[in-house]
Design goal:
By secondary structure, the protein is of the alpha+beta class. The chain contains eleven helices and nine strands. Helix 1 packs across helix 2 (29-35), helix 6 crosses helix 11 and helix 9 (259-280) runs antiparallel to helix 10. It starts with 12 loop residues before the first helix and ends with a helix.
Length: 308
């Protein structure tokens, strides 16, 4: 099979938002996604919510980790009072754009089909705000989106997002050390190994499974029959994101000479990407079989990363 880096659309909201904040010094989205640590693992949160991302990881952690290895720092604030938070946003916008998130995507009604909370996290870059609305670059595909104040307030509370705090924003981005892409990729790998080894940052819902155990448990759920909500999450978001981030991580690891680990990630990307069709046409037996094939590759990836 031919292997070339993927280029195209996909739900890389925090990577693209971070790239906008870093400006001309930003690495490519593939590098940003990789150094967040997201591609290195799988988790089944609470035993039911699947993501092809690292065990115990979430985007809020990932942004901080990416800034760390890239030689940047930023000020992160959260505020329970919505009026105080909005005042701080107005003040911060006087100095430049502001990275917002997580927010609840379902309240962002400039996106067609969004009418209320769906439990989906999202990130935006705020550009302007006044009493009536906020203007933001929405990396879902909506530059200069105008978001009415009420919708924005509901989204920014993030009440239905499974992680993070309400009214979180990142400002005052400063590059304190020049770090090239390759050095940042290498610096991100110890955390990847830790999570592939089953370690996590705590606070996970009861029943959460990681890596191979998560893949096997998800295979069993899929094989048992159609769950419309689970199938919808997988085919509209989880599978295409998982396939892209593992493919990007494979390309990044080849850049730093970690060819064995890159080969495992490429295998994972192919397996994850292949289940999209099977789930869409409801061939649950085949999708489950693919996930069972995927399960042992997480230990293979851990060994490949620790052996070189």
């Amino acid at each position: 099979m031919i292997d070339i880096p993927y280029r195209g659309s996909g739900p890389y909201c925090y990577a693209h938002s971070l790239a906008m904040m870093l400006g001309a010094a930003a690495p490519g989205a593939d590098v940003l996604e990789t150094v967040t640590g997201s591609p290195f693992g799988m988790q089944l949160i609470g035993g039911s919510l699947p993501f092809f991302d690292a065990f115990g990881w979430d985007p809020d952690l990932g942004i901080g980790e990416a800034l760390d290895v890239l030689g940047w720092r930023a000020e992160t604030t959260s505020e329970p009072d919505p009026d105080v938070a909005f005042s701080r946003l107005l003040e911060s916008l006087a100095d430049g754009p502001v990275l917002l998130g997580p927010v609840e995507m379902g309240h962002l009604r400039h996106q067609p089909g969004m009418t209320g909370p769906i439990g989906a996290d999202h990130f935006l870059v705020a550009l302007a705000a006044d009493a009536g609305s906020v203007t933001a670059h929405d990396p879902q595909g909506y530059p200069y989106a105008r978001i009415p104040r009420a919708d924005f307030a509901a989204a920014w509370r993030a009440e239905t997002v499974a992680y993070g705090k309400p009214h979180t924003m990142r400002t005052k981005f400063v590059r304190h050390t020049a770090v090239d892409d390759e050095a940042a990729i290498v610096a991100s790998l110890p955390r990847a190994i830790r999570r592939l080894s089953g370690e996590n940052d705590g606070g996970l819902p009861p029943g959460t499974l990681g890596n191979g155990d998560a893949a096997l448990a998800l295979a069993d759920r899929i094989a048992s029959g159609g769950d419309p909500e689970l199938r919808g999450l997988l085919i509209h978001f989880v599978v295409r994101l998982g396939a892209r981030r593992t493919a990007d991580a494979a390309a990044c690891l080849r850049r730093v000479g970690r060819d064995e680990a890159a080969a495992v990630l490429t295998t994972q990307a192919r397996l994850i990407g292949s289940v999209q069709y099977d789930l869409v046409v409801e061939d649950y037996a085949r999708a489950a079989a693919t996930l069972r094939t995927l399960a042992p590759t997480y230990e293979e990836l851990r060994r490949a990363l620790t052996s070189s």
